[in-house]
Amino acid sequence: MSIHDGGAVEAAVRRLLVPLCVLSGAIVAAGFFFPSFVGSVVAGESWLVVSLLFFGSGLAYLALLPLDDGSDGDAGSRTPYLLRVRRSGWGDTARGLFTRVQGFLSQQDPITFGVPVTAFVLFFVAWFAVPTEMQAVVGAVEGILLHEFGALFLGAMFLAVCYCLYLLVGPWGEVRLGGPDANPTYTYPTYFAMFFTAGIAAGIVFWGPAEALFHYRAPPPFVDVPARSGGAAVGGLAYALFHYGFSAWSAYLVIGVPIAYFAYQRGAPLRVSTILTPFLGVDGLDGYWAKLVDVLAVFATIGGVATSVALVGQQFLAGSNYQWGVTYGALGPVLFVAGLTIITVVSAESGVERGIRRLAGVTVVLFVVFAALLVGVGPRSAMVDTGLAAVGTYVAEFVPMSLYLGNGFIAADWVAEWTVWNWSWWFSWAPFAGLFLAALSKGRRVRTVVLTGGVATSLATVVWFVLLGSTSLSLQRSGTVDILATIERAGGSEAVAGFPLLAALPLGQLLLFVFLALIIVFIVTSADTSTLVVSILATKPDVAPTTGSIVFWGVLQGIVAVAVLLVGGGNALKTVAVLTGGPFAVLSVVALIGLTVAFRRDESGHPSLLDKARSPVGDHGIGGPSEVLRREK
Hints:
Elements: H1 3-33, H2 37-40, H3 44-64, H4 94-106, H5 110-129, H6 131-148, H7 150-169, H8 188-199, H9 203-217, H10 230-244, H11 246-266, H12 277-280, H13 288-324, H14 331-350, H15 352-377, H16 380-396, H17 398-403, H18 413-440, H19 446-478, H20 483-489, H21 498-503, H22 508-538, H23 547-567, H24 569-602, H25 609-619, H26 627-632
Helix pairs in contact: 1-3, 3-14, 3-15, 5-6, 5-13, 5-23, 6-24, 7-11, 7-18, 7-19, 7-24, 8-15, 8-18, 8-22, 9-10, 9-19, 10-16, 10-19, 11-18, 11-19, 11-24, 13-14, 13-18, 13-22, 13-23, 13-24, 14-15, 14-22, 14-23, 15-22, 16-19, 18-22, 18-24, 22-23, 23-24
């Protein structure tokens, strides 16, 4: 298929998507503003399909729009080569199709492609065949990782935080990725939007109103206050900020900064295994140690993101069931994941310049709109009072919270189930988020990368949790609505927490619509990026992925999510995240050791922030007699 033919196909698809979006949107709008419409006219799986058609057709249309120059791809654009998707079509005959498949397989790395695919197949076959035995083994491994190795997760994360803070203020932050003459590839708003939306999934939407309430009901041992008290409210919100704040984003930076440095300063390939450059050399990155790291990255990415997709599927349906009373059965989660997979593949295949960049922009706009609406109609005094108190506690107690295990060197149950599990989740996302950050960061100083990837992103999540968390706590404590009772009636699912909260506020239906839209766009903007990154890792070095590779890994990611839903339920979701995050907690430490060796050897002489602050002082003579004083003598 030529590029011209591909453009013609996309134009035809766009013409089909417009009426589809309008018709399904009319039905969805009726469901939101006339809730009795749902159930009496459209029910169950039909409502889910219509909702996905509306959101999916709109996002797909946006992703498939041509660029300003009329092109339909990244070729010749500013996008780094490995992030460009090489367009390939299917043959018109069976023979042509077979040739295409052969060509696709010939461009895949036999290790980074074959090992993960085989392992995922064997894992789920074994789980189907002997579920009790597999559940016992995986559960035992999970327990060991969360408790006995809890100190490893906390130590690795705290080291990441300290290192990132040093990069912010120290001399190494002045290093410009790509050399002193390199220019940034993207504008700063685009740079921030693409990384922020890739690195945070729809969990922020669900946990925003829920996590502080969970800790308010059962306070963390570190806080040591009575349940459902004012102290529990502040402490619970502080822990929510802790789990989604600077620490979490630092996990991405300690993988992304080493990749970016060695890729742009040493000519290493844009792969996760590039973190081993100081130990293996650039030429040694074709060896088995490097392949092992890339294989682990594929495992971590597919496991972490597929787990998130499955979890979001369960939570979206639980929330819909609460709001409209519709039930979906076993087919509902499968339909939801299938719909998300289609949207993800379309966005990833359209490339960074079109789908990924545009959907990131839409997500940030919806994020800001929702936050502004909530400030307008929510309890602003509670947002200020509880929010400021929680932020103060978060800052003042940051170091003790970061090191608290609760049981010597073994993580206590609460710490294992919350902090250690959260850290393992963030580390499972670190390979693809870090690699994507590295790909976007050429031409920027290391300090800017950390400021964006750690400070700006964590500020956004802190604002989100302060607004939603303080609102849910205020409504719960005032008796306006019993959100905790609603969660209990829903089987303990945090998915429903946002619905009674929004229903109790003015403009509740509008807030609910934006809330559900955010669920979709946040998970899509993470899944499309992860699909692209895995396609890069599985393709032979220095070869950009093809459309076939994007489709294959996007579909496999969806299949893994469905398999997790069908064979493991909620427990399997947590287990997969822990199993994939553990190796990269260790590799993050290895990456920092190698980066430190390289910086100390090759990057001396750069000024720190303190040095730069002293320069103007010295220039104006404050360190000694000034030019003005000398003239006055």
